Amino acid sequence: MSTTTPRVVTVIGAGTIGLGWVTLFLAHGHRVRVNSTRPDVEPSVREAVRLLAPGLPGAHPDPAELLERLEVVPDLERAVDGADVVQENTPENLELKQELFARLGKAAAPHTLLLSSTSTLLPEALGARMADPSRVLVGHPFNPPHVVPLVEVVAAAHTDPAALQSTVDFYRGSGKVPIVLRKPIAAFVANRLQSALLQESIHLVREGVVTVEELDAVVTNSIGLRWATMGPFQSFHLGGGLGGLRKWLTTLGAGLQKGWEGLGRPVLDEDTIELLLAQADDAFGAHRYDELVARRDRLQRTVLEALRDAETS
Amino acid sequence: MSTTTPRVVTVIGAGTIGLGWVTLFLAHGHRVRVNSTRPDVEPSVREAVRLLAPGLPGAHPDPAELLERLEVVPDLERAVDGADVVQENTPENLELKQELFARLGKAAAPHTLLLSSTSTLLPEALGARMADPSRVLVGHPFNPPHVVPLVEVVAAAHTDPAALQSTVDFYRGSGKVPIVLRKPIAAFVANRLQSALLQESIHLVREGVVTVEELDAVVTNSIGLRWATMGPFQSFHLGGGLGGLRKWLTTLGAGLQKGWEGLGRPVLDEDTIELLLAQADDAFGAHRYDELVARRDRLQRTVLEALRDAETS
């Protein structure tokens, strides 16, 4: 399954994101060391790999075989000694992450890539207490990392171009689709887009146009389906008939801009929050959280596999 | 395949949307009359049904069998005489549509549902010149109607509740997922959400964070995949771990609102349009328009079929 050289990869943190990375890296042939402060880390990680491995899109690896390449290493310095890649998944606390990266900078070999799953912090900040932060990058996955292909890669002005290239190669070889941001921006790309759509979704529910459940049904039955197969620009290109994007932008651009001015600017006051929560409870409150998560991941894997089969058939 | 009583359905207009409706309605057992001003309408419609029928999700009807229930009726009054449902797909011109609906109101039997595919006009406006507009509704499909499940149903204050219910039943029985808007709003729901995401997409390209091609890849490999399987609210509920939507909205609501304030407000000036067009040309300019459309529809059908299989297995 691997298309890259097997590496020694240290995963720091054994929460949802960390465990997804562990499973993915193992499935792509890497040796994985897990470093975590959880007291029950060894049995937890082994159990998670057994649970998550069957969910890997397109792959049905034997969990027992994967677990042979897994090692739990509670000591941080020992965990990164000789590692090719470190992927850290600690809480979004700048102080703690800066401290962690300072230790990593001292403990890891000079070629080791130091990657962070952070969704909010930039590599400049992460590496601020390091003598040489040139191999610190953000590699922000979408949850769960073993299913959803995207990883947003963010470098800094001080990043070594070779480290950036190695990071991209490493992720691609591990089955991910890495997209390198050309400049840093708060919240990166996917979460900003998600936030823009959520803002209008909340506006429409607040205005009483649709309920939470109806809004979700609109999306899965139209734009969600479409955006699983092609992005918004290509969709837009094909949405207006012959003439495509050029026709849209040159003859209908004013209407597009006017539409933006009419979009909602909801306020998340107490009434809005209670309205959303009551409707969300009606929509999916009767389902257990872990069952909804399992369903999401199963359906996402289903879509990915179907699309890959269709593209290669 | 049909779960509804077969009806006589008159489709007015034989462009992309009209032809998609024709194929869908035929596949669900209805008798379909096509009314169009196109001179070549008879051979065009028959050719379109042959081309589109194999693309119907989950169905593989024999086009020859479908065509037995198709009739081209160039005279409008004759086309709607005895019809149970009219679905009109004429250009987005209020004057012309008002004139059309006035004629339909006189020509159609009192029980006939008068439905418009319009993406911009409200039923009040469409029926403004009719003596009795109580059975005029918007039934706005997503392109192409024979593949994408959503139809947004918009009623007016004067709409007969029985006509609304019949409309919903008719669409549901024809394989669609009808969502009734609880109040009218400009551009309806799906296109407003699409517009919100497109606004931020254009901002990110304009700012040089990603290219058109990279933006599209981010979406298909993350939020598009996700929103094909569940809507934004349920995604959000599952995105923050245990505690779900309540935790997000009550403890992180301020951050969410702050994120909205940082979203882009791009201007569609000439430089922006040229930048988008040049990058779009790099991304998909080498592909023929009709091939991209065919690929989109094939992949959308693939996703729908895979999800339906997964949900029923």
Automatic annotation (TrEMBL), chains A, B:
One of its GO terms (biological process) is fatty acid metabolic process. Residues 188-252 form the 3-hydroxyacyl-CoA dehydrogenase C-terminal domain. The chain crosses the membrane at residues 6-27. Keywords: Membrane, Oxidoreductase, Transmembrane, Transmembrane helix. Pfam families: 3HCDH, 3HCDH_N. The record marks 140 as: Important for catalytic activity. GO terms for molecular function: NAD+ binding; oxidoreductase activity, acting on the CH-OH group of donors, NAD or NADP as acceptor. Signal peptide: none annotated. Residues 9-182 form the 3-hydroxyacyl-CoA dehydrogenase NAD binding domain. InterPro entries: 3-OHacyl-CoA_DH (IPR022694), 3-OHacyl-CoA_DH_NAD-bd (IPR006176), 3HC_DH_C (IPR006108), 6-PGluconate_DH-like_C_sf (IPR008927), 6PGD_dom2 (IPR013328), NAD(P)-bd_dom_sf (IPR036291). Pathway: Lipid metabolism; butanoate metabolism. The keyword Translocase does not apply. Belongs to the 3-hydroxyacyl-CoA dehydrogenase family. PANTHER family: 3-HYDROXYACYL-COA DEHYDROGENASE FAMILY PROTEIN (PTHR48075), 3-HYDROXYBUTYRYL-COA DEHYDROGENASE (PTHR48075:SF5). This is Ketoreductase RED1. It comes from Krasilnikovia cinnamomea.
